[in-house]
Amino acid sequence: MPEHELTPRRIVAELDRDIVGQADAKRAVAIALRNRWRRRQLADDLRAQVTPKNILLIGPTGVGKTEIARRLAGLVGAPFIKAEATKYTEVGYYGRDVESLIRDLVDAAILLVREVERKRVREQAEARVEDRLLDLLLPPAPAPSPSPWDPTPPPGAADEAAERRARSREKLRARLAAGELEDREVEITVPGRASAPVSILGAGNLEQMEMDIQGMFEKIMPKPSQSRRTTVGEARPILLQQEVDALLDPEKVNRAAVELAQESGIVFIDEIDKVAGDDGGSRGPDVSRQGVQRDLLPIVEGTTVNTKHGPVKTDHVLFIAAGAFHRTKPSDLMPELQGRFPIRVEMQDLTRDDFARILREPRASLLRQYEALLGADGVTLEFAEDAIEAMADLAFQVNRSTQNIGARRLHTILERVLEDVSFEGPDRAGETVVIDADLVRRRLEDVARDEDLSRYIL
Description:
By secondary structure, the protein is an alpha/beta fold. The chain has 18 helices and 11 strands.
């Protein structure tokens, strides 16, 4: 869908197809995405002054925080990365530094740009693959050696041989297009990958330097290659990949990726609440909480991060942070960092009706997934309405009595309900298995009633 057609209302409607509830969060991210398009319509002098309004999602696990951000990026083909704030440490200490967020974002953008470019050159690459296959099937004829009795070839012999070869090549081309030569064996050359013989550096915060050294070795060391005999059908995708890569301009791809990351990148920082506050009076350097916040602040505010593909400005990257904030609160974050997340949305706990809708409505709902999985074994799986209601009731009940893990509780419940069917699936091919409320209760009622047991099993 063209970006100018993605109005906030349409964005919310698209998100509703896969995510149940959380209307406030959907509206917030829809407005943020639309504001990006609006910004690009402004005059150059004003456009540079408009920065994205970053979003802080507050709510328990399993209510859709990550899924909303991921689906949002997928709507417009924007580069997207998700990272947990707890995996980073302050610069100078062992661990990943927060600038690797942007390096990962550029890598994601390169994958997107490459895919677009591959589609653009695919038709040209397929024509080149056909010519290469014809060369393999019909090698060039050896030059005729002069006869000792008559060193001069007869006039027109070379033209006649070339004409015969052209006719043979066109016949092979027709048979190749008709799929008649897919089982014919050919010999292809597969290039290898040059790599450093050993890892040079081990510390996580020096990973970019190690990647640069790895790239240097790839450039200066010869790439090994090997010959492989394979069928035409198996050789075609290998040759297509080689031809597509040969038609791509790496510098052009990298420049486009950097631009895409700067203008359309979305960074989702999960578990932001785990770096809020302090360590309860710890005397040592706080390298994984306040230190991470200090390093994160300039990136969210807008700075330039050096990557191996060039400098990347983060002024217009959209940052979405999320956290449960059970033991801390948003005000425990550094004031400067709080100010960089002006839009705050409180996610709602899932209700019993939400659980039932999650099982029924999304395009890739859990019920459809299990029906397709068992269908691979030839088993037709059907869920009765009362079974869906029973599972929703149970998920809601267990979430209230134990830890609230949101929709993830449904995964555990469905696995336990379908354990026997999944195990016996290959032996029950051709059968229709109906899951009703009685079966759900038989499988789960005893466990759900025993609160101590349900803490471990459900």
